[in-house]
Write a structure and sequence with these properties.
With about 350 residues, this protein is an alpha/beta fold. The protein has helices at about 15-25, 40-50, 65-75, 90-95, 95-115, 150-170, 205-210, 240-255, 275-285, 310-315, 325-340, and strands at about 5-10, 30-35, 55-60, 75-80, 120-125, 175-180, 180-185, 220, 235, 235-240, 260-265, 275, 290-295. The strands form four sheets. The protein has a seven-stranded parallel β-sheet, sandwiched between helices. Helix 1 packs across helix 8, helix 3 (about 65-75) packs parallel to helix 5 (about 95-115) and helix 7 (about 205-210) crosses helix 11. The chain binds uridine-5'-diphosphate-4-deoxy-4-fluoro-alpha-D-galactose. Uridine-5'-diphosphate-4-deoxy-4-fluoro-alpha-D-galactose binds next to helix 7 and strand 8.
Length: about 350
């Protein structure tokens, strides 16, 4: 009997890649998504990749009654992977209440139905944003958390706290928070990938759109940081590697291999890459000379951060397999497919 996993936000960027990996590992994935930032057609493409069409329930997790009704119909759900959330840092500053309501009420509702119906396992989509600018690099899971610099970041910190407190109060709930560094790229089939709304905030979609000629030039936000080439440093990991970590985490909970009721893992490569290095990687894999210009710093940017992923390497037996260039190549292939209207 296949284990049924509920994937909230399963038509989104990381959610869709994770759904593919779950299906390929023999799980029965069911998706809840309100399609706020994604498209229903993603399930067709998941079907194309895996040969299986996951059930998609279009539902807002903030609607407790509807969520409860859905879970009642799927009492065999064994675990939940929770992606559904707003994620634009800049937007969150202007719409804090929307962010707090959407990201936190949905989580509280989800935990409530998990408790009500005895669903024991949760994997939560968190972010390295909880560390702020760490004093020591690479950053380990026990590094002190810094006050969040945006409502979005705060929803990840508070979200982690809500989950931890729930696992403390109820030993029947087990959870893992995965702190992602910077996911990039797309599925090698080029059937699923990131679908940014409007002008992208993140580096790689901006970069590939500029390479394609949709944007005039890439603005590099600052070259006067205390880093080897002066531009900011991040830990970019391939979204497929990231997706696989969710499968490992869910198996750990299902098989009861977790060492504590609440665990936290960094998911990154362990390598710091500067903005200028990311541009060079794009130029290598695309053969395109990218138009870019150094401009002033972006407010709220962290100077440098990369993961110490050794806890995930050891405990989860997970590590990233793709290089920066491989991940960048899939991002570029995806951009070309998107623009050729083949998706
Ligand atoms: N950058 C540019 N030009 C751009 C876009 C980005 O130079 O047009 C630079 C940024 O200044 C930064 C780097 O590229 O140095 C990466 O920026 P992203 O916006 O892609 O990623 P961030 O690291 O800033 O943000 C990511 C996630 C957030 C999360 C944060 C945690 O997108 O959700 O990591 O630090 F909160």
């Amino acid at each position: 009997m296949k284990k049924k996993i509920l994937v909230t936000g399963g038509t989104g960027y990381i959610g869709s890649h994770t759904t593919v990996e779950l299906i390929e590992e023999g799980f029965d994935a069911v998706i809840i998504d309100n399609l706020y930032n994604s498209e229903a057609g993603v399930v067709d493409r998941i079907h194309k990749i895996t040969g299986v069409r996951p059930l998609l329930e279009v539902l807002d997790l903030c609607d407790l009654e509807k969520l409860d009704g859905f879970i009642q119909k799927h009492r065999d759900i064994s675990s939940v992977i929770h992606f559904a959330a707003y994620k634009a840092v800049g937007e969150s500053v202007n719409k804090p209440l929307e962010y707090y309501r959407n990201n936190l009420l949905s989580l509280v509702n989800l935990l409530s139905v998990m408790k009500r119906y005895g669903i024991p396992n949760l994997v939560f989509s968190s972010s390295c944003t909880v560390y702020g600018q760490p004093e020591k690099l690479p950053v380990t899971e026990d590094a002190p958390l810094q006050p969040a610099t945006s409502p979005y970041g705060n929803t990840k910190q508070v979200g982690e706290t809500i989950i931890r407190d729930t696992t403390v109060s109820d030993k029947n709930v087990r959870a893992i928070s995965l702190r992602y560094f910077n996911p990039i790229g797309a599925h090698p089939s080029a059937l699923i990938g990131e679908l940014p709304r409007g002008v992208p905030e993140n580096l790689v979609p901006y970069l590939t759109q500029t390479g394609y000629g949709i944007r005039e030039e890439l603005k590099v936000f600052g070259d006067d940081y205390n880093t080897p080439d002066g531009s900011c440093v991040r830990d970019y990991l391939h979204v497929v590697d990231l997706a696989k970590a969710h499968v490992v985490a869910i198996k750990r909970l299902i098989e009861g291999k977790n060492k504590a009721n609440y665990e936290v893992f960094n998911l990154g490569t362990g390598n710091g890459v500067s903005v200028l290095e990311a541009i060079k990687s794009f130029e290598r894999v695309s053969g395109i000379k990218l138009k870019y210009r150094i401009v002033g710093r972006r407010a709220g940017d962290i100077e440098k951060i990369w993961a110490d992923p050794s806890f995930a390497n050891k405990e989860l037996g997970w590590k990233t397999l793709s290089s920066l260039d491989e991940a960048m190549k899939t991002a570029w292939d995806w951009e070309k497919i998107l623009r050729s209207n083949k998706i």
